Amino acid sequence: MTAVYHALSRQHDASLAVAELAAQLPLAQISIVLFFCSSRYDLKQLAAAFSERFSDTQLVGCTTAGEISREGYEAGSVCAIGFHHAYFSCQAQVIEQLDGFDLLRAQRTITPLFAKLPQANHQHILALTLLDGLSSQEEVVLLQLETALGRIPHFGGSAGDNNQLRRTHVFFQKQFYSNAAVVILLQTALPFQVFSGHHLVPRAEKFVVTAASADYRTVYEIDAEPAATVYSRLVGCDPEHLTATVFALHPLAVKIGQEYYVRSIQRVNADGSLTFYCALGLGAVLTAMDNTPMLPALAALFADCEKTVGPPLFTLGCDCVLRRQELAERGLLAEASAFYHENQVIGFSTYGEHHEGVHLNQTFTGVMFGQPSIDTIEMEIPCDR
């Protein structure tokens, strides 16, 4: 018996793409289908096709800044994962209107989902979040959800729109939403390990944010100078030449405790300010970071997870779009795709990653599931379909 099923379509037509996915998935055996799609699709047509073909199946997903299929990096595709109901019991809910999200709303979201799961094996639960990547609400929403989740491991990613930075969407059941999030609880007897990692190390240079709007994730001044001027001087180019590739190769981070958390730049603005993918406040200290080789760091991260789960079944990954851009700049996309293929990675390129209530940038964050064993089969989660 297969615990998970993978599907991929590179069809440009939304209806044909969904039909191709449905043909690859045994829907009657699936607890939930999770998909990641290019924002180049006509989303109204895509939603209508999903409603027709997946009408009796729990269905969640989001738009991307690129997809990761069984074959590696994709662009302009839709890929999906079907979780077999003998191994996974899954419950999902959409959260609309993220502004002002508080702990009470978080509890009202999580508690009913938790109650619908089989009461046996409650220790085998993890949470996945998908969130509008241009909502600027990740920090607040993730913190409140993490509090409501308690000790349940939690990871996820922020939806993208192929680097257009216009509008991103999450999907729940029959429609796409903006300014929204989807929370999925997965209960399984399979071994799993939630993880997050990156390949960046701190340099000596440090800077202080001296004018900023945390609500808009925009830094106006660094060290009392226009933010873009200071950053351009650091990376050695003129402000008008700042691009996503430059941001990927020259990241900045804040230090919290003993850990460095990257705060990736999204764009440079006409007034010389910088807008980030994560919130930054007045007085934040930024550290310049260096890029070490990415793929050896990723291989070490996977090897560490395998110590916990044993031989891997597959990995669900949320991969920052700036990592993909760095790989492209260094000519390593094919090598990375081969690594993902060999390690059975499925996922998407994000506008931010979620790990244990924290909003991250330039990480590979996800969950690795181990292979079913005889003991696992005997512990099959009862189906609540």
TrEMBL record:
Residues 227-357 form the FIST C-domain domain. Residues 28-226 form the FIST domain. It comes from the Bacteria. SMART domains: FIST, FIST_C. It holds the Pfam family FIST. PANTHER family: BLR0328 PROTEIN (PTHR40252:SF2). This is GfdT protein.
